[in-house]
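Entry 12.
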Amino acid sequence: MTLTDGLLLASAAFAAGVLNAIAGGGSFLTFPALVFTGVNPIVANATSAVAVSPGYLGSTLGMRDELARVPPHRLRMEAGIAAAGGVAGALLLLITPASAFRAIVPWLLLFATVVFMAGPRCVRWLAEHRGGVPGRSARTWGLLAVSVYGGYFNGGLGILLMALYTVTGESRIHTANALKNLNSLVLSLLSVATFALAGAIAWGPAVLMMAAATAGGYAGAHGARRLPAAAVRAVVIGTGIVMSAVFFWRG
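Predicted 3D structure (tokens):
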């Protein structure tokens, strides 16, 4: 890793930490930065997951009061589902040929961008227009599917989880957000452990980016109240569109 590569990765991770603390979307920066410095796309995806993982712990600890109001058996059950999905998604990534994943990446980035762009509106619409609430089995299978996606490719995970909880009857927005943070943490930890055991993480860039992302998250948390949320979301969406276009162009 050259000095220039290190500066690029640290800058991308710091900015990702800021974005994740304010609006999400940090993986739109960390994953492309790793690929642009020559890291294999599958290793870059695994390393990016490591880089942004500290933020999930902070978010979960910050919502301990909301989680304390959820029945413990529900927390254990959903954490178990998220863990299984995270491992399954990570294993699916590891058996995906590098050439196939390289072809899928632009579509994953574009999908994550669209989810991020339309997510809050969809969540509000679901909250206002849902009819009969799906049963527990629908939430279970939905959580498993979203967790597999999160283990495979992290972009847009939070919005997908929020939409899932809304459509399956969780009317308390802060509880839904707390569950989203907890299950993101669990599936992230398990998928990262799977990547580590498979030797799919570039640890030099990962450690550098974790430190930079943590610093960025701290800065973002303190600056969140000073920045218009709409402006930050516009930056994330613009970044996602540009990154998708670049990856489509690169083939």
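Annotation: The chain has a mean pLDDT of 83. The chain has one domain: 3-250.
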